[in-house]
C-alpha cells in the first residue's frame, strides 16, 4: 500500500545494482513466505475514532489490522475492552492517522467533522457509523458496512447470523415468560435524568427482552426524560438504569439524588444494566437484551405500578 507521507533517506536506486544478485538468489526461497505476507498485507490498516467505532473494529478486524483505537476502548464503556488491551491508542487527531499510514478510519456519523472532511484527501477511507440506529436490522447493516470496509465480510455475516439466532431465542423466551399476562412496565433512566422513548435502540432492547417501555406508552419519542410529575402519576414497576456507576458524584448525576430514584432504590425496583452493553447501537445490543431478560426476576415491582 502506498505511503502517504514522504520519508527522508538515500535515493531508493542507490546501491540497487549490488543488491539485485542477492535478491535474486533469495527470491525462490522467500516465495512462500512472501505469498503469505501479501495475503496479510491485502487487509486494510484500520483505526477507530470513537468508543462506538471501537466496538465495531474490535469485533470485526484482525488484531494485526488494527493500527489504533481510542483511549476509551479498554475502559468501562467498552464491551470489547479485553480485545483492546495492548493496542495502540489515538486521541483522534488527524496527524496521528496520517503518520500511522491508516487505510480506513471508522467514526460516528456526527463526530469529528474535520476528520471526515480531511482524511479522504489523503486517500484514507472514512466509514460513518449510525451509532443511534434504532433497530437490530439497522445494526446488521452497520456490521456489514464495517466488515466490508475492513476486508472481513465473512466475519460480518457470521456475527449478524449469531445475533439473529440469539435474538430469535430471546424473543421466544420472552413471549413464554409473559404468557397471557401483560408485559412488565419499566422506564429507562440515565444519570442526567434523560430516558429513552420510541425510536431509540433502548426501546428496541426493552421490547426484545419482553418489557413495555413506559416512556413509549406515554407517547414520548427520542432520548428526553419523563417529567417528574408524570412519573409520580404513572410510575413504572421498575427503573432500568445505566452509567450511574461511572460518575457517582458528578454534576451530571443529578437524577441519582432525586426522591423518585431513591424511592425505586429503597424498594429494590432498580434494574442496573452495565453501560458497556449499550454505549451506542452496536453488536453488543443483543447482550444488553439478554441481560435485561435475565434480570426480570431480580427486582421487586413497585406496588404503585399501574396496569
TrEMBL record:
Domain Fe/B12 periplasmic-binding: 45-303
InterPro entries: ABC_Transporter_SBP, ABC_transptr_periplasmic_BD
One matching Pfam family: Peripla_BP_2
SUPFAM superfamilies assigned: Helical backbone' metal receptor (SSF53807)
GO biological process: cellular response to iron ion
Protein name: Iron complex transport system substrate-binding protein
Organism (species): Rhodothalassium salexigens DSM 2132
Organism ancestry: Bacteria, Pseudomonadati, Pseudomonadota, Alphaproteobacteria, Rhodothalassiales
Amino acid at each position: 500500500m502506498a505511503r502517504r507521507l514522504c520519508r527522508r533517506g538515500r535515493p531508493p536506486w542507490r546501491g540497487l545494482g549490488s543488491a539485485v544478485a542477492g535478491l535474486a538468489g533469495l527470491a525462490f526461497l522467500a516465495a512462500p513466505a512472501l505469498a503469505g505476507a501479501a495475503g496479510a498485507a491485502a487487509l486494510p490498516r484500520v483505526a477507530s475514532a470513537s468508543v462506538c467505532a471501537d466496538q465495531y473494529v474490535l469485533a470485526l478486524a484482525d488484531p494485526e489490522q488494527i493500527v489504533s483505537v481510542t483511549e476509551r476502548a479498554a475502559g468501562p464503556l467498552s464491551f470489547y475492552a479485553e480485545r483492546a488491551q495492548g493496542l495502540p491508542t489515538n486521541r483522534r487527531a488527524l496527524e496521528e492517522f496520517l503518520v500511522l499510514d491508516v487505510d480506513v478510519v471508522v467514526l460516528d456519523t456526527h463526530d469529528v467533522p474535520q476528520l471526515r472532511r480531511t482524511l479522504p484527501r489523503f486517500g484514507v477511507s472514512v466509514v460513518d457509523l449510525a451509532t443511534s440506529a434504532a433497530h437490530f436490522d439497522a445494526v446488521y447493516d452497520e456490521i456489514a458496512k464495517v466488515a466490508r470496509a475492513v476486508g472481513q465480510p465473512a466475519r460480518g455475516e457470521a456475527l449478524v447470523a449469531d445475533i439473529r439466532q440469539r435474538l430469535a431465542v430471546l424473543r421466544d423466551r420472552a413471549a413464554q415468560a409473559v404468557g397471557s399476562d401483560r408485559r412488565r412496565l419499566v422506564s429507562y433512566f440515565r444519570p442526567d435524568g434523560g430516558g429513552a422513548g420510541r425510536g431509540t435502540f433502548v426501546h428496541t432492547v426493552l421490547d426484545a427482552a419482553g418489557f413495555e417501555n413506559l416512556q413509549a406508552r406515554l407517547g414520548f419519542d427520542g432520548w428526553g426524560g419523563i417529567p417528574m410529575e408524570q412519573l409520580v402519576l404513572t410510575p413504572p414497576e421498575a427503573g432500568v438504569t445505566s452509567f450511574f456507576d461511572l460518575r457517582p458524584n458528578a454534576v451530571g448525576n443529578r437524577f441519582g439524588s432525586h426522591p423518585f430514584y431513591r424511592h425505586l432504590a429503597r424498594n429494590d425496583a432498580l434494574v442496573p444494566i452495565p453501560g458497556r452493553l449499550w454505549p451506542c447501537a452496536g453488536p453488543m445490543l443483543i447482550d444488553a437484551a439478554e441481560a435485561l431478560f435475565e434480570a426480570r426476576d431480580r427486582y421487586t415491582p413497585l406496588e404503585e405500578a399501574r396496569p
